[in-house]
Amino acid sequence: MRVVVIGAGIMGAACALALAERGAEVVVVDRVGVAGETSSRCEGNLLVSDKAPGPEADLAIASNAMWRDLAERLDADRPAGQPATEFEAKGGIVVAFAGGEAALERFADAQRATGIRAEAMDAAALAIAEPFLSPEVARAIRYPDDAQVQPSNATQALLATALRHGARLVIAEVTGGLGRPGRLAGVRTTAGPIAADVVVDCAGPWSGEVAARLGARLDIRPRRGVILVTTPMPQRVFHKVYDSDYVGAVGSGDAALQTSTVVESTPGGTVLIGSSRERVGFDERTGVAPAAAMAAKAVRLFPFLEHTTLLRSYFGFRPYAPDHLPVIGPDPEVAGLVHATGHEGAGIGLAPATAELVAHAVLGTPTALDPRPFLPSRRGLRETA
Amino acid sequence: MRHVAILGGGPAGLAAAQGALAAGARVSLIDEGDRLGGQFWRHHERLTDPRLQHAWHRFERLRGALAGGGAQVLVGASVWSAEASVDGVRLRAVVGDADGDGRSAIDVDADAVVVATGAHDLALPVPGWTLPGVTTAGAAQALAKRDGVAVGRRTVVSGSGPFLLPVAHSLALVGSHVVGVHETSRMPALAGGWLPRPWELAGKAGEFVGYVGALARHRIPYRTGSAVVRVLGRDRVEGVVVARLDADWRPMPGTEREVACDAVALGHGFTPRLEAALALGCAIDGDHRGRFVAVDDAQRTSVAGVFAAGEVTGIGGADAALAEGAVAGFVAAGGALDDPRLRGPVAARRRTHAFATRLERAHGIRPGWTSWLDDDTIVCRCEAVTRRAVAERADVPLRAMRLATRAGLGPCQGRTCGRAVEAIVAESGGAAASVGFDRRPVLAPVRIGELAALADTDPRT
Ligand SMILES: Cc1cc2nc3c(=O)[nH]c(=O)nc-3n(C[C@H](O)[C@H](O)[C@H](O)COP(=O)(O)OP(=O)(O)OC[C@H]3O[C@@H](n4cnc5c(N)ncnc54)[C@H](O)[C@@H]3O)c2cc1C
Ligand SMILES: Cc1cc2nc3c(=O)[nH]c(=O)nc-3n(C[C@H](O)[C@H](O)[C@H](O)COP(=O)(O)OP(=O)(O)OC[C@H]3O[C@@H](n4cnc5c(N)ncnc54)[C@H](O)[C@@H]3O)c2cc1C
Questions:
Q1: What superkingdom does the record give (chain B) (predicted)?
Q2: How far does B445 lie from chain A, in Å, by closest CA?
Q3: At what angle are helices B202-217 and B317-332 packed, to 10 degrees?
Q4: C-alpha pair distances (Å), A379 with each of A254, A313, A322, A345
Q5: If you measure CA to CA, which chain B residue comes closest to A10?
Q6: Which of B145, B130, B129, B141 is nearest to B52 (CA)?
Q7: Which of A252, A294, A244 is nearest to A118 (CA)?
Q8: What DSSP state is assigned to residue A280?
Q9: B306: which residues sit within 8 A by CB, 6+ positions away?
């Protein structure tokens, strides 16, 4: 079985590895190379804390568990020059200010019913866990399973491992499909045609455009996010700390600027403040509005941040579907085309489980995961594309 | 009345301010330095030795024009954000010491902006260059010009370009024994660059000859096709290895010799400060060997209302910066390029552009320099990243390479190492370089609290 994977972001890299390990002959095609786009312009949170009960939460719980073994495996037989995944299970703390306690508690209760570990913290425990947190915080819940990787390095590690399993990387742009209408037999690229039994579309925020080039319809759009990085300092943030308004922003389709605050420190001593959500197409001029709003919320969580200095900021475009659910599985109209996209702000976390579902779709290998909620045949993905 | 903002108070910015005033605009000029003058007229009100300054009268005239024209002059003000929109341009600055109290925020809204942010001087890595006692030529010059202090008792100057000469001269004037000036380019390149049409060099050639004369008076040897290829010492500089180079700047085996010294000044040209222009959306020309803001004859960039002048548009020295600034400011204010009052600057601009081309031909960085590096020579000093680490990841996109190696992610954000890292990537067969290392959305350090304050007060957010 010969498979072309379009895109060498986290999704393409994870799929390439899963397929190559299961015996497929894999060619990864990316126009810029490995981890050149969204997967190097994000945070590497592997979260369960922000997921409301539902199919994405189930996928996230499974994927979170898979990351632990995967990261260990990628790091264990790491040749010189291959970066480490920097997997760390540091856990998250979601906090609410006065007025938000009840909503947070209801949310956590619902999550516990689906199997997410969510532990209420009393004031004393919170003061020990995060001594620099604002005293105005009224409620805190700990999510011990929240973890992280360095997303760019994890993507590079996944692809390097896939290449060692026989996959090939071609740096070229996919310009169209091979085969007859309704039946894909490979791709045309700027480096020539590549024949394949199956083509997997892992083109992130561009996967709608790639689908169109392959004769399919898929509504995937970009949602811009900005992240702030401070100059290094002695560590004063010990977990991932989120304002519980995070929960509200993820599912919303509103075009206007939204921010939900995540504050954490990195091994290098910098503090990362994420992130904003705006639907502005691929506009690269971020302006200061998102940064200002995030800074204000971060200072509310950790007042000491007021006197710290911003070192840099960066932004990326989350790939999202109109119903904010990942799109994983065979295209309903074009045979030989499988999608793995639309993971919005959770693609790093969801990559291993997505790869397993893609292997299931392409090779028929078994999976305990339920593919149905993510199938591209669901309503609302083609009508607007 | 049209309001023109000028970002940068070096020769280009000062001339732009004067030009904009002459064309009848209201002018605001912003510079992060404590005093106007930029790199060229870097000075200290009391300590500066007038012999160290060139064309000082010109500076005084420009300052006078600003005062006379009622320009708003903001010094000690770092612009951290620059945005262009259909409504005009907005610059946001913070005034005051980054670590001190009493900082204040200033916004400048204008109809047009002249970006005159100049260039950093560039020092290519050399094994041993992280030892105390090694500085950039620019830093050595600044120390001499502003504070009257010499970097060392016995100094070796190495690098390329005519700017090494004033650096050596300044060092000599403040009492350092300059053991030698090693010009990396060879005589044929220099002759090819400087000699065929000497009339184009007019004033510059005179200046050059003047410096060579000054070096001779101070008995400072000037060697071409020669460079410091290693710095020696245990805890600080004790000497250097100099070698002869081929036309591509590759050291020629067997020509190495040791020279004792306690300071080294390295200057391999300049890296323009492009981040403000990039934030404003301006198109950039060139590659890692030289990348500049693209401008037309009137110094217009690709973005309406945004002009650029001086070293951000090409390395041509202070005269070029002055001519370009005068044109940019005048046109930004609504003046016409063919206005008789611009005749002088337009002619000077044409002349100095030829000089810049010549400069590049004679002194442009050649790819062979990387062969004087060891595998474990540190290239990115902030994050202690070696040449080997960069070369190992050269095959991935720049962004991924930086995240994997951490090259350019430290406090200087690649300002010092960017070009060198890109050269190593290119030499190792990596993807074509992009403006990746020059894009810094945060133009200058700003506090989280200062950002947060904008969330409440700014109607645009
Ligand atoms: C600010 C921000 C913060 C985020 N934080 C998190 C987080 O904490 N945790 C988390 O799990 N997720 C997070 N995400 C989301 C995550 O980054 C994405 O879901 C994920 O990176 C998407 O990966 P991908 O492989 O689908 O896309 P990409 O990484 O964008 O890869 C797609 C690839 O396709 C290639 N391509 C496109 N078109 C073509 C073509 N025609 N031919 C060839 N190649 C093509 C591109 O070059 C690119 O390399 C965040 C996103 C943003 C923007
Ligand atoms: C060591 C050295 C020696 C030199 N010797 C000579 C010589 O002998 N003869 C000669 O002709 N030329 C010489 N030059 C070159 C000369 O200095 C330049 O050609 C000239 O200064 C360029 O003018 P400019 O206005 O473009 O830039 P600059 O003089 O560099 O001015 C740019 C200004 O912009 C400001 N700025 C940048 N970004 C920001 C920001 N974000 N916020 C606020 N302010 C900002 C800086 O503070 C600076 O003052 C020398 C340069 C150096 C470094």
A1: Bacteria
A2: 6
A3: 150
A4: 20, 37, 10, 22
A5: B400
A6: B145
A7: A244
A8: B
A9: B84, B89, B112, B113, B115, B277, B280, B281, B282, B300
B206 contact partners, CB below 8 Å, separation of at least 6: none
What phi, psi does A211 have (nearest 5°)? -55, -45
Compute the distance between CA of residue B7 and CA of residue B74 in angstroms, rounded to an integer: 10
List all residues of chain B from 438 to 457 with a beta carbon under 8 Å from chain A. Answer: 440-442, 445-449, 451-456
Q: Alpha-carbon distance B308 to B299, whole Å?
A: 6
**Nearest-ligand number for the alpha carbon of A56:** 1
Ligand approaching nearest to the C-alpha of A348: 1
B451·A83 Cβ contact <8 A: no
Among A153, A228, A295, whose Cβ lies nearest the Cβ of B403? A153
Q: Across residues A320-337, what is the average pLDDT?
A: 97
Q: What domains appear along chain A, each with residue ranges and CATH number?
A: 2-76+150-220+323-382 (3.50.50.60), 92-144+222-320 (3.30.9.10)
Separation CA A325–CA A317 (nearest Å):
16
CA–centroid distance, A39 to ligand 1, in Å, is 4
State both tokens at B405. Answer: 């190696």
Tokens found for residue B38: 């930029």
Q: Report, as an integer, the average pLDDT of A85-114.
A: 94
Q: Which residues of B touch A150 (CB under 8 A)?
A: 403
* pLDDT mean across residues, chain A: 94
Q: What chain A residue is nearest to B432 in terms of C-alpha separation? A: A32
The CB-side HSE value for A373 (13 A sphere, CA atoms) comes to: 14
Amino acid at A349: G
Chain B residue numbers touching A312 (CB-CB < 8 A): 413, 440-442
Nearest to A296 among B392, B447, B456 (CB): B456
A66 neighbors A73 (Cβ within 8 angstroms): no
Confidence of residue B49 (pLDDT cuts 50, 70, 90): low
Q: Report the pLDDT averaged over residues B323-348.
A: 96
CB of B460 less than 8 A from some CB of A = yes
Give distance in angstroms: CA of A115 to centre of ligand 1: 28
Q: Is A160 in the pocket of ligand 1 (CB under 6 A)?
A: no
Residues of A in contact with B395 (CB under 8 A): 33
What is the mean pLDDT of the segment spanning A194-223? 98
Q: Write out pLDDT tens, residues A166-200.
A: 999 999 999 999 999 999 999 999 999 999 999 99
Judged against a pLDDT cut of 80, whether residue B457 lies above it is answered with no
Q: For residues A231 and A113, what is the distance between their CA atoms, to the nearest angstrom?
A: 40
- Cβ-Cβ contacts under 8 Å between A and B: the total is 123
Q: How many angstroms separate the CA atoms of B315 and B301, rounded? A: 17
Count of CA atoms in the C-beta half-sphere (13 A) of B344: 8
One-letter amino acid of A187:
V
Place of tokens 């690098």: B159
Per-residue pLDDT tens over the stretch B410-436: 888 998 899 899 989 988 887 665 677
Of the candidates A363, A341, A356, A371, the one whose C-alpha atom is nearest the C-alpha of residue A9 is A341
Cβ atoms A319, A255 nearer than 8 A: no
ipTM confidence score: 0.91
Distance between CA B285 and CA A333 in Å, rounded?
A: 44
Residues enclosing ligand 2, CB less than 6 A?
B 8-13, 30-33, 38-40, 54, 78-79, 116-119, 121, 137-138, 141, 163, 166-167, 273, 276, 310-311, 317-318, 321, 443-444
The tens digit of pLDDT for each residue in B8-36 reads 999 999 999 999 999 999 999 999 998 89
Order of strands, sheet of A174-180, starting from the edge strand that comes earlier in the sequence: A174-180, A183-189, A192-195
More confident residue, B290 or A298: A298
